[in-house]
Fold each of these.
Amino acid sequence: MKDLRAKADMLVEALPYIRQWAGTTMVVKYGGAAMVSPEHKRHVAQDLVLLQHVGIKTVVVHGGGPRISELMQRLGKEPVFVEGQRVTDAETMEIAQMVLVGSISQDLVGHIYQAGGRAVSISGKDGQTIRAKKKRGAGEVDLGQVGDITEVNPELILSLADAGYMAVISTIGIGEDGMSYNINADTAAGAVAAALGAEKLIVLSDVPGLLRDPSDEASLISELKLDEAKALIKGGHIEGGMKPKLQGCVKALEGGVKRAHLLDGRLAHCILMELFTDRGVGTMIEG
Amino acid sequence: MKDLRAKADMLVEALPYIRQWAGTTMVVKYGGAAMVSPEHKRHVAQDLVLLQHVGIKTVVVHGGGPRISELMQRLGKEPVFVEGQRVTDAETMEIAQMVLVGSISQDLVGHIYQAGGRAVSISGKDGQTIRAKKKRGAGEVDLGQVGDITEVNPELILSLADAGYMAVISTIGIGEDGMSYNINADTAAGAVAAALGAEKLIVLSDVPGLLRDPSDEASLISELKLDEAKALIKGGHIEGGMKPKLQGCVKALEGGVKRAHLLDGRLAHCILMELFTDRGVGTMIEG
Amino acid sequence: MKDLRAKADMLVEALPYIRQWAGTTMVVKYGGAAMVSPEHKRHVAQDLVLLQHVGIKTVVVHGGGPRISELMQRLGKEPVFVEGQRVTDAETMEIAQMVLVGSISQDLVGHIYQAGGRAVSISGKDGQTIRAKKKRGAGEVDLGQVGDITEVNPELILSLADAGYMAVISTIGIGEDGMSYNINADTAAGAVAAALGAEKLIVLSDVPGLLRDPSDEASLISELKLDEAKALIKGGHIEGGMKPKLQGCVKALEGGVKRAHLLDGRLAHCILMELFTDRGVGTMIEG
Amino acid sequence: MKDLRAKADMLVEALPYIRQWAGTTMVVKYGGAAMVSPEHKRHVAQDLVLLQHVGIKTVVVHGGGPRISELMQRLGKEPVFVEGQRVTDAETMEIAQMVLVGSISQDLVGHIYQAGGRAVSISGKDGQTIRAKKKRGAGEVDLGQVGDITEVNPELILSLADAGYMAVISTIGIGEDGMSYNINADTAAGAVAAALGAEKLIVLSDVPGLLRDPSDEASLISELKLDEAKALIKGGHIEGGMKPKLQGCVKALEGGVKRAHLLDGRLAHCILMELFTDRGVGTMIEG
Amino acid sequence: MKDLRAKADMLVEALPYIRQWAGTTMVVKYGGAAMVSPEHKRHVAQDLVLLQHVGIKTVVVHGGGPRISELMQRLGKEPVFVEGQRVTDAETMEIAQMVLVGSISQDLVGHIYQAGGRAVSISGKDGQTIRAKKKRGAGEVDLGQVGDITEVNPELILSLADAGYMAVISTIGIGEDGMSYNINADTAAGAVAAALGAEKLIVLSDVPGLLRDPSDEASLISELKLDEAKALIKGGHIEGGMKPKLQGCVKALEGGVKRAHLLDGRLAHCILMELFTDRGVGTMIEG
Amino acid sequence: MKDLRAKADMLVEALPYIRQWAGTTMVVKYGGAAMVSPEHKRHVAQDLVLLQHVGIKTVVVHGGGPRISELMQRLGKEPVFVEGQRVTDAETMEIAQMVLVGSISQDLVGHIYQAGGRAVSISGKDGQTIRAKKKRGAGEVDLGQVGDITEVNPELILSLADAGYMAVISTIGIGEDGMSYNINADTAAGAVAAALGAEKLIVLSDVPGLLRDPSDEASLISELKLDEAKALIKGGHIEGGMKPKLQGCVKALEGGVKRAHLLDGRLAHCILMELFTDRGVGTMIEG
C-alpha cells in the first residue's frame, strides 16, 4: 500500500506540470544514441506518447547522418563532407531519402504505435512543409542538393495535430523547382519549432548538455540566456555536433519559442524528467 | 538522478492507464470522511484535477447529510428519519439546499480551483438536470419533499464538459410542479453515471470497500459481479450506509456503466491508485 | 374578437422592440421587494423568460443582504456594518454563501423553470467568473472577506448562453489564494454588464427610479447622462442603497454598456414595460 | 401606467405560446384578400416578421391566379380553365412566372423588409426546390404546362432559414426536362409543409374557415380530424376554392404536419390571434 | 485514339488555369445577344456551370432593357429615355421587375439547371442585397424610380455560394423607404464584383471588346490599364452602350477587383476561351 | 480562333463528367511502366492533379517490386519468390520500406507538387492505416514478413483529404505486435477503395487491359461483370501480374466500389481519357 501511495504522490507531483503544458506545442529533435538501441527507442516513444496523452501537441524532427553514410558505403559510395556538410549528389539524395523517410521515420512510427500513440511520418516534401533552396557553397565547392530552408509551412503538421496525429518529420526540403534538398536536422528542428510557435524545443544529444569543457561532463551549463548562447557560437567556443544543435536552439528562440533544452538522450526518459519533475536536467536556454 | 528516474518510471507505468481512460467519463460520488478534513479535500481535488487533465470527463456527485443535520440543530430543528429517509418539510428542504449547494459544492469548487482545475457547481434544478417526483411514503408516513428521480437530463453536464468544466452536483431534484426534492446522493450518483454512459462510477466511503463481515476490514470483497451484488442486497446482507451505495452501483451498472468501485475515501489519493496503477484497491463491481 | 384584435395589436406594437433587442445581452440586477413576495418573483421570472424567448441573452445578478442578516441572527451572530460594508469573518462568509447560492439563486432558478425558461445558478467562484481581492479596509477596520473585483471572466456565462441557459449569478468572488470574497451585488452587476458588452443594465430597486428628492416619488429623474450621474455621486447627493446602484450603473456605462435603467421592482412586469412599449419607466442613464 | 400594465400582461399571456412555437417551422399559404390591399399586406408582413423574431422558421407560399388572368387579358389573351385548371401554353407560363415571381413575391419581400424582417423570394425552379411533371390531363384536354409535384427538395429553404432568411415561394415547378410547370399553390403549400416537417400549415382564405354551409358564416367548423376532412372531400361536400385548400391541408397532415389551420385572411393579424392567444380562430384540422 | 489524346491534352492545357481560378470569385455580366438565342443561352449556361464545377464562386448579374421596352409596348406604354436613363414610373418599375426577376432570371436558372448547375435567382431586394436611393435627376427631369446604389450587401450571395448555389441577380435595388429602384445592370455588376472582392468581372457585350474605332472590329484594344480606361471615359471617347460597361469595369477595379474583361457574347464559349486557354480574347483591363 | 473554339468545346464535352465525378472518391493503383520514365510520371501526376482540382477525392496506392529487387541485388541479397510472393526477412522488409516509402512515394509527391497538386505520402503504418497479420504460408515455406490485410482504417486518408491533400500510399502493413508487413499493392488498392467507399478503382498496368489472349492486344475485353471476373480467376484463365490486379478489382467491387478499370499505363493521360471523354479505354468491370 505504501508503494501505491508513493506512485500516487508522483502523479500528484507531476500534476502542476501537466496543467502547465496542456495545450502547448513541443518539438523534439530526435537523434544520436537515443536512435540506436531498441530500448532507447522504446523509452523515447513512451515519453512522446505520454506528452501526447496529457494534451501536448508533440512534433518530432529527426536526423540520421550515420545511417546514411552506412548505406552509402554498403552501396559502394564514399561519403564526402566539406566543412561538416555532406556533399549530396542525386544518388546520395536518393539514399538519404530512403534512410530518413523509409527507415528511421517508419521505425519510430512503429515504436510510437507500440507505446499506444498515433503518429504519421512526413518529409518536408509532403504538403510542401519545408521549402528550401540550394545552399550557396562556401568557396568553390558545389555541395549539390544541400539546402537552406526558405520557409516552414505548418499547415500539414497542424492539420495532423488537429486529427490527433503526431508528425514525425524527415528533414528533406523541396525547392520551387521540385528538387529535393538535404537539410540539417538541427536547424530544421529550430525552424519547425519557430513556425509552430512552440512552447519548447527539446534537443536530444549524446552529452549531458552544453559543457563549458567538452572533455568534462561536470562542466555542464544548466541555464543560459539567448544572448549568451549567441556569444558562445560567435566566439567559436562551440565545436562539433553541438554547434548546429545550439544554432537550432537559437533559431527557435529568435523565432519566438520560449525555451530550448539540450538533454542527454542516453538517459532513459530524460524528456519526462525535464518536463514533469521539480528538477531540470541538461541545459536550458531561455529567450 | 536515481530519484528522477523513479519518478519518470512511475509516469511510464501510468501511461497505459492514461491512454485507456482518455476520453471516457467517470462519475465520482464524494462524501464521508473525504469531505471533512482540509487535507482530505485537497487530496480528492488533486485526484479530480488530474483526471480532468489526462482527458477524462470528470463529474462529481456529493451528499452531505451530517452537515444538514448539524445546521438544522443549530437552527433549533430536530432531524427526523423514517427508515433511513430524512423527513423533509419546507424548512428542512431550504436548509438542505443551503448546505449542499451553498456550502459543500462551493467549498469543493474552491479546492478544485486551488488544485488547478475548472469546475462549476450545479444542483439538479439547474438546467432541470435531475427531474424528480415525490417519494411514495412507506406506510402512512409522509416524508415531505423526499423525491425519486424520474429522469436525469445530461445536457447541462455535457455542455459544461465540452466547455472544459467539471460539474459538481448537489442532488436536489425538481418536480414538474417546480417543487424541490431531496434526493439520496448515492442513488443520484448511479443515475447520473447511467445517463452519461460513464465508464466508471467511483464511490468514496469510510470503509475499505464491501466487507463480508462489516466488523472485519480484512474481509474485503475485491471483485463482484452485478448479479452477486443484487443477490447480496436482496438477501438483506448489506446494512447501514453501504446499502444505498451498493444500490447506486447496481443502478449505474444496469444503466450501462462498465464498472463501479467502492473505495476507501480515508485513503489519500485512492482514486489515482485505483485508476493509474497495476493494483486495484477497494471493491470492483462489474456489469 | 375585438379583444383578440387588441391583443394582436399589442404584439405588433412590441415588434420593433423585439427586433431591436434580439441578439443583444441584458443584465438584470435583481433584489429588493421584487425578491420577497412569491407573486413578485413570478412576475420577474416571466419577464426574464420572455426576454430569453425573443432572443435576448439574459443574465441575472442578485444580492440578498437582509436574508443574510436574518440567518446570521437565527444562528446567534450579530451582523456588523462599517460604512455600509458587512464585516465578513469566515463564518459570515459561509452563511452568505449558503443564503445567496443555496437559497436565493436556487429559488429564482425554480421560478424561471416554472415560467418556462432554462437557467443555471452560478457563483463568481464557478468557472472563476468573478476574480477578487481583499478590500483595503477604510481606516483601521479589517472588513474580513469583503472583496473588490479584479476581473470578470465572461467565459462560463457565455458558454451557458450559447447552450441556451440564463446565468443567475451570486456575487461571491474568488481570490488568487482560493479564498471566497463577499462582493457588493450592485457593483458586480455593473462589472458583469461591462465584461459582457451588454446592451443594457437593468437595476431593480424599491423606488420608482432616481429621485431628486428621495422623499418625493414625483421628483423622478427620467433621463440622465453618465456625466451627470457621476457628478451626483461626487457631489454627495445620493445616499443609502441608491448610491451603490448608481455606482454600478456608472461602472457599466464606463465599461461600454449603452444604457442603464433604474426601475421600480415593486411594479409588476416593469422590465417588459421598459423594453417593449413606447413609454419608458424609471430612470434611464445613457453613456 | 394602467395601459402599460395591460400591454405587459398581453406579452405575458403570449409567453407560453412563444415558448411552444420557438424553433418550429410554420408554412403560411398567402393569397386572396390578404394579398390585395396595402393595409392587409402590411398586417400579414408584420405577423410573419413577428413569427420570425420569436424563433419560428417561417416559410411563405403564395398563389396569384386573378393577377395572372388580369395580365393575360391586358396582353390580349383570354384565360381558359378546364375543371378549375388554367390551360397553360408557353406564353401563359411566361406570364404566370412574371406575375408570381417578378411581382407578387417581390412585393411581399418589400413589405417584409418594411416590417423589419429578412426574406428571399424563390420560385420552385430556384435550387430545384419543386420538381414536377406534366399533369395527366383529365380526358382529352391538354392542360399544357400544368404540373404535378414529384418532389419538394427542402435544401434551399433550409439553407436560407439557417442564414436567417424567410423563403417566399412562387409555385413554379421544374421538370426533369428543364420545362417550367404551373403548380396549384394550395397543393404546393401542403407539400412544402410536409417536406419541411412543419409544425403547422396556415392557409389564409377569404372566408372565416371551413363552413358547413358556405352561405352561412355562422356555420364555421372550429375543429376537424384528418379523417373527417378526407370524408368531406370524398363526399363532394366541399366546393370552389375551398377544395384545393382543404386538399393542401390533408396533404400536409398526411405528410406529418401536426396541425393545419384555415384562417380568414380578411381579419387583420389573424395569424397572431391563432398562434399567440388562448382563443383560436378559423378552422383547425388535426392529424 | 489520337482524338482521345487531343482531348486529354486539352484538359491538361486547362489544368494550370483550373488551379489558378479555383476558390476565386468571378462575376459575369450577362446581356445582349448572349441573352437572345436559345443556343447562346445554352452556351453561356455551360460556361457558368463549368466555372462552378472547377471551384469558382460564380455570380451572374443581368440586365434586360429591350425586353422591358417590349413588354411596355405590348401593354400600351411608350418607353421614355432621358440621357440614356429609362424614366421609371410605378407601372414601369412593376413591368421591369416582372421582366427581369420573373422572366429573364427564371429562364437563365432553367438553362443552368439543364447544364447541370445549381442556381438561385435573386433581386437586389432579396436579403436587401442592393441598397439604393433615388437618382438625382440631371436638370429638371424626374427619372422616377431610377436609383443609385448606396451599398451592396454580399451576405445573401455568400450564403448561397456556401450552400453551393450560383446567384443570378436582377438589378432591382431597395430604398430605405422600401421603394424599388431600377439600377443600371453594368454599374451594378461592377459594384457586386467589388463587394465580393472578385478576382474578375467578365462583361459580355455584342462587340469584340473595346474598339479604338467603333466601326472597325479590327481596332480592338487587347489590354488597358485602369488609368487609361478612366482617361478614355473622361475624354468622351466612349459612347453608347459601351460607356456604362466600361464604367462598371472601372468601378470594379477601383473596388479591388483584379481584372475586368469585355468579351464578345456572340462568340460561343467566350468565357471558357478567356479563362482556360493560353490566348485571351476581347479586352482586358487591369487595376 | 477556330482552335480556341475546339478547346472550349473539349471542356464542354468534359463538363458532364466533371459534374458526375465531383465529390466522389477514386483510388488509382500506380505501377508498372507509368512509374518508370520521367515523362510518364509527369503525365500521371497531371492526371491526378486534374482529378483533385475538379473535386474528386483522389488516393494513390503504389507498388514497386522491381525497384525493391534491384536495391536488394545492389546490397548483395538475392530476391527469393515462392508462388509469386517475395520471401521477406527483416532485412528485405527494411529494404522494401526504404524503396517504397523513401523513394517511390517521395518521388511521386514531388511530381504532383510540380503539377500543382497537394499530396502527402503515407505508409500503412502511419495512422495504422493498413492493419495486417502474417500470411499463412502455403505449405511449409515461411514467407517471413509477408502480410494479409486485416483492416483498412480510412481515418488518416479522410482527414488528409478534408485538409486538401491527396494520400500517396505505400502498402506496408502494421501488425498488432507492431511488426511491419509487406502487402501486395494490387490487393491493398482494392481494400483501400472498398474502405473508402470509392466510386472507382483505376488500375494502371503495362497492357491495354484484360486480354482474352494475353499474346494478342486486339483481344481486349472492354466490359466485364463482377461474376465473370470471378469466374475467370477461378477458371485459372488469368496469369502473371494480371491475376492480383483482377483480384484487387474483385475485392473492391465486392466491398461496394461501383466500377473498376484496368487501364494501359503506357498510354499518356489514360486516366483522363477514361474519366472525361465519351469513349472508354481499357477494361471496365462492374459490380
Amino acid sequence: MTRRLAYLGPPGTYSEEAALLYDADAELVSATSLPAVIDIVHDGDAEEGIVPVENSLEGAVTFTADLLIHETTLKIKSELVLPIHHCLLATAGATADDVEVVYSHPQSLGQCREYIRQRFPNATPMQSLSNSAAVIDMMQSAKPAVAIAGRRAASFFDVQILEEWVEDNHSNATRFIVLSVEDSAPTGRDKTSICFNFDADKPGSLVSVLAEFSERGINLNKIESRPTRVSLGRYFFLADVDGHQQDGDVRSALEAIGEKVSMLKVLGSYPRHVPD
Amino acid sequence: MTRRLAYLGPPGTYSEEAALLYDADAELVSATSLPAVIDIVHDGDAEEGIVPVENSLEGAVTFTADLLIHETTLKIKSELVLPIHHCLLATAGATADDVEVVYSHPQSLGQCREYIRQRFPNATPMQSLSNSAAVIDMMQSAKPAVAIAGRRAASFFDVQILEEWVEDNHSNATRFIVLSVEDSAPTGRDKTSICFNFDADKPGSLVSVLAEFSERGINLNKIESRPTRVSLGRYFFLADVDGHQQDGDVRSALEAIGEKVSMLKVLGSYPRHVPD
C-alpha cells in the first residue's frame, strides 16, 4: 500500500524534497502549515508527516519543538538529513543581466547574503513567504528579477537554473523527522528524543538529569531549551540521546529521570541518521 | 553627558520602547539591523547598544545569540525586561467595522492569532516587516485595515488605539541586554553569561561543565545551544549563571571549565533583573 505522507507545502519547497528523499513512492499530502501537517496525521488523512527540526546554520526549528512539547501525541519514527543547496533561478530565456530584484525566503536570503552582494551589487533582495513563493513572485515581477530556491522548485515551475550551490556556506543541511502514531522498533543504532521540565528552579536540577545519562555512558546528542510560556526564565528541555528506550540502560536512565522532573515525555525512539 | 544608545529601529518598535525604559534621557541612535546596532557601538557612534535576547513565548532571539558567539567583543553590561502588550491601532476617525486586513509583524500576528480569529473572522492577516512598518502599511492600505503594534507606535505615528492587551497570552515579555565595551562592576546581585564549545563529542562533556557550577551551589538560569555552522550535531552552548565573574566561586568554576572546553568566552557580568 502506498504510504500517505503529509508535508509543509506548497510543492517546490525543501520540505517536499525531504519528503521525496524519505520515500519517493509516497503519496504526498501538502499542508499549509506545520500544525496542519500534524492535524492531517491525527485525522488519519496520512499515515505519517514530515517536519523540519534543525538546520546546520540556523539551529533548531523552534516552531516544531513547540509542537512536539505542547500539541501532539504523535511519536518520532524516523529522521533524515537533506543537504540544502540553493539555486539561482530565472524564467525561460531570461539572463542574470540587469537584474533589479532577487526574491527568496528570508532565511535563504540570509544564507546567500555574500553571494547576492557580489553577484548583484545593484539589486534589491526581496522577501517571499517560501522558496516556492519566491519563484512565483519572480515570474510575476514587473522588474527584471531572479529567485533563489531549490532544484525541485525549478522543475516544478519549469524555470531555468542559472547557477547552483549559491549559498555562502556549503555545509548547509536540514534535519527532518517523521511523525506517526507509533515510533520504531529497536535496530541497534537508534536514538531517543525526550522532553522534560521542573517545577522549581534550583541549582543542579538539569545537571542531575543529564548525569543519569552520562553515568551510564549514554551520549547526549543535543539539548535545547524552550520557554514554558508561563514566565521568562522557566523552560522545557528537549534532549536527544543515543540508544532505544527499550535498551536496558536507556530505560533505567528514563526511570531515574522520571523521579526528578515534574514532566517527562518520550517523543520517540528511532533509527539514527548515519552521515555518508 | 547624555548617553548615546543604539537600538533596532525604526522608531515605534518594541526595541525603542525598551531603549526608553532603560534610559528615558538617552540620545537614541536608530540602526537598521541587529548587526548595525553592534557596529555603531564598535565605531564609537554610541556608547551602548540594546538588543533583544529572549521572549517569554517565542524563546531565544537566535540572531542575537549568534552575534554574541561569532561577531562581537562587546560585553553585556545590563539586562532589562519589557512587558509586551499589543494594541489594536486604526487611523484617526476609522472604526474596527468592516475591517478586511490586519497588518502586523509575523511574530505579533502569531501572538494574537486567537484574538484576530474571533474579532475579525473575515479579515486577512498580512505580514509586515516590523510592528512599525505595519502601521505604515495600514495607513497606505486601499482596503479598510487595522494594525497590531505597541503603544509607542501609536504615539509616534499619531494613530488611535482602539483596544489594548490584544495578545492571546498576557505573560508576554521580552528580555533585552545592553552591550558596551566593558561589563559592570559587582553589585551583589549579578549574573554572568558565558559561551563555550567542545572539540569532540563524548558522553558527559556538557554535564561535566555544568557540574562545576552545581557543585559550588551556583544556579544555572539558562542554557541554550546554537549550531557551530560547521556540521549538524555540533553546538556552541550559551549559559547564564548567578553571580559575578569576580566572585570567588564563579571565578574558580570558570577556571575549571576553561580546562574542559575548547573555547570559553565570558560575555559579561551584570546586575540581574529582579521581577517586580
